[in-house]
Design a protein that fits this description.
- This protein is an alpha/beta fold.
- Among the domains are: about 170 residues, NADH-ubiquinone oxidoreductase 51kDa subunit (Rossmann fold), CATH 3.40.50.11540; about 70 residues, no CATH class.
- Helix content is about 30%, strand content about 20%.
- The strands form four sheets. Strands 1-14-13-17-15-16 form a six-stranded mixed β-sheet, sandwiched between helices. Strands 2-8-7-4 form a four-stranded antiparallel β-sheet, with no helix packed on it.
- β7 and β8 form a beta hairpin.
- α11 packs across α14.
- It is globular, with a radius of gyration of 21 Å.
- The N and C termini lie far apart (about 45 Å).
Length: about 450
């Protein structure tokens, strides 16, 4: 089986706790808070004010720039204020507060279960519907999808690659989505192929999901140009550049984008959202989230409306187990510990992982022994031990020269380090400073 060629690790997947658990819908809370920063790029700008009544699916904040995304109300109710909220990582972000009064929707939104395979729209019309629906990448990056579908001048898409890998340990929401909505995902793939003007699509799925591979192959067999590619198990195969390498054997150049090798990559959850937007007129107002952990009472996959407090989601899944030492937003490799579980669920949240005290305990860092394990594991071919040291000492010019911005935050370096060095913590700090310097230079031009 295929896989990517540089680096990678093999953490235990721990998916057995929530795998094959049918998607359950979380009840709508009495109040929701909708953050206006749910995507890469500029925050959305509110188009409602205190006292306004809104319906489910109604636009409440419009994209604040080219790289930005619309935000819609997930409920019907009354706007109580436009203010801010502290998110799960301690950052204050603008937000819209709504008191819920029911579940009434805009009349044009089709909320039936009937599958609609027919689309008579042209490429630009599909892209516009995706843009209006506020769809972003649901694999973690939250990059506005419509921007991906409009390559810059001189660049042309040749292949659409669908990310069904879900290589992050513990998480199973994409796996379950493929099992329950494979037909809609295939239709979504066809819509994206039409939007991009490509005749070839590859669905990459790791071999620890044989039922998802079979299910997607069942529908792909009857779809011109769409194939399923079973992949060897290796983390972080869900990274765009690693998935491109695994599926078509091309390496995205340093500082480059997938379109530089003729590829566009979309996550299966994003593709399902595209189907809902184009065929059902449903904007992106909910997503499937995995709630899991070795001691979790009801680990599973839950469909949750954005704006629902994570505490409500966790309680619906059985609550926080005794002796929980840390709650992570996302998975254990790329996720981050949360300081606030009253934060609302949003487009960025793919999983909630509850880790017990023993596993959450951090080891005291030891001196680097120059073993080179982090270099061997790095899927981007970087030198994590050196980048971390340079970031620690503020050597930002050296960091930029050594391509620190190519780091994908996968955590392979930390996973392999026998000295428990906080390599990724330092590298993230270095990336933030180098990124700010690069943006400042660009603004001066």
């Amino acid at each position: 089986m295929k896989t990517f060629n540089i680096g990678g690790v093999h953490p235990h997947d721990n998916k057995q706790y929530s795998a094959h658990k049918p998607i359950e819908q979380v009840p709508i809370p009495e109040k929701v808070v909708i953050p206006l920063v749910q995507h890469i790029g500029a925050p959305a700008k509110p188009v409602v004010a205190k006292g306004d009544r809104v319906l489910g699916g109604q636009l409440i904040a419009e994209a604040g720039g080219f790289v930005s995304a619309n935000i819609h109300s997930p409920v019907s109710g009354t706007v109580t204020k436009v203010d801010s909220i502290v998110d799960a990582w301690g950052m204050r972000v603008p937000a819209i507060y709504i008191d819920v009064d029911g579940d009434r929707w805009l009349p044009e939104i089709d909320r039936t279960e009937t599958v609609n395979p027919i689309c008579k729209l042209e490429s630009q019309q599909i892209i516009e519907k995706i843009k209006q629906a506020g769809i972003v990448g649901l694999g973690g990056a939250c990059f506005p999808t419509h921007v991906k579908l409009m390559p810059p001048p001189g660049k042309k898409a040749e292949v659409l690659i669908i990310n069904g890998v879900e290589c992050e340990p513990y998480l199973t929401c994409d796996h379950q989505l493929m099992l329950e909505h494979s037909e809609e995902i295939i239709i979504g793939i066809q819509l994206l192929m039409k939007a991009l003007g490509v005749s070839k699509a590859i669905i990459g799925i790791e071999r620890n999901k044989p039922d998802a591979i079979a299910k997607m192959q069942q529908h792909a067999t009857h779809t011109l140009g769409v194939t399923v590619e079973p992949l060897e198990l290796k983390y972080p195969q869900g990274g765009e550049k690693q998935l491109i390498d695994a599926c078509i054997g091309k390496q995205v150049p340093s500082g480059g984008l997938p379109i530089d090798v003729g590829a566009v990559v979309d996550n299966v959850a994003t593709v399902y959202a595209v189907y809902q937007a184009v065929q059902k007129n449903q904007p992106l107002i909910s997503r499937v989230v995995t709630v899991t952990g070795k001691q979790a009472a009801r680990p599973g996959n839950y469909l949750v409306r954005f704006g629902t407090p994570l505490s409500v989601l966790i309680n619906f899944a059985g609550g926080v187990p005794e002796h929980t030492g840390k709650i992570i937003g996302g998975g254990p490799m790329m996720g981050r510990a949360m300081c606030n579980i009253d934060m609302p669920c949003n487009k960025r949240v793919s999983g909630v992982l509850m880790i017990d005290e023993d596993e959450a305990l951090k080891h005291e860092p030891l001196n680097c022994i120059r073993c080179g394990k982090c270099m061997k594991a790095c899927p981007m071919g970087l030198e994590p031990y050196l980048l971390a040291k340079q970031a620690e000492h503020g050597l930002y010019d050296d960091l930029e020269k050594r391509h620190v911005m190519d780091c994908i935050d996968c955590g392979c370096c930390v996973f392999t380090c026998p000295s428990y060095r906080p390599l990724l913590d330092y590298i993230r700090l270095g990336k933030a400073e180098v990124g700010a310097r690069i943006r400042a230079r660009q603004q001066k031009k």
